[in-house]
Specification:
Elements (H helix, E strand, L loop, with lengths): L3 E2 H4 L10 H12 L18 E6 L7 E2 L12 E11 L4 E10 L8 E9 L4 E10 L8 E9 L3 E10 L1
Antiparallel strand pairs: 1-3, 2-4, 4-7, 5-6, 5-8, 8-9
Length: 163
């Protein structure tokens, strides 16, 4: 299993996490610049508020594990990483896990659980959240995880599957 160094995901000191899709687009644009053409490289993509994952191993301060989607049913814990470039210090960030469609197990768009974390400093805040499997295990289906800040409101959502 390989990890992606956060420095390779985004080199800005204002955020340690960056959407991999946006990063790929930035790299593609930078690579299209003709060497020696005299044109400058494009400006870096803006830092965006986001949630990334899901992961079956915990992200660290220096690396993101590979994204796993769909998540296997027997996975005991699901991890997500989040970032917001401009939350105030001590901002409460609520991460919500929603069962969008799990068949007869629960009605559509049922909130499974929430977790709250406190942003440690103003500005480039980031962190991880984890959700443990229910006693009976994860029901297969479609899920969503959302991130909401106390003062900044909803800032990201991510859909994923458990199979």
């Amino acid at each position: 299993m390989t990890t992606t160094p956060i420095a390779d995901v985004h080199r800005s000191r204002t955020s340690t996490l960056f959407c991999l899709v946006a990063m790929s687009a930035t790299i593609a644009a930078a690579c299209s610049i003709t060497r020696g053409s005299g044109r400058s490289a494009p400006a870096p993509a803006p830092v965006v508020a986001q949630i990334v994952g899901p992961y079956v191993t915990a992200p660290s301060e220096t690396a993101l594990p590979p994204v796993v989607n769909p998540i296997p049913v027997p996975t005991p814990v699901i991890f997500f990483a989040w970032a917001h470039p401009s939350v105030p210090a001590n901002e409460h960030i609520t991460i919500t896990l929603i069962a969008r469609n799990v068949g007869a197990v629960a009605p559509p768009n049922t909130t499974v659980t929430t977790t709250m974390v406190t942003a440690p400093q103003a500005g480039a805040n980031h962190g991880t959240s984890r959700f443990s499997a229910p006693t009976a295990g994860w029901p297969p289906g479609q899920y969503r995880v959302t991130a909401t800040g106390e003062s900044v409101g909803p800032f990201s959502q991510l859909d994923f599957a458990i199979q």
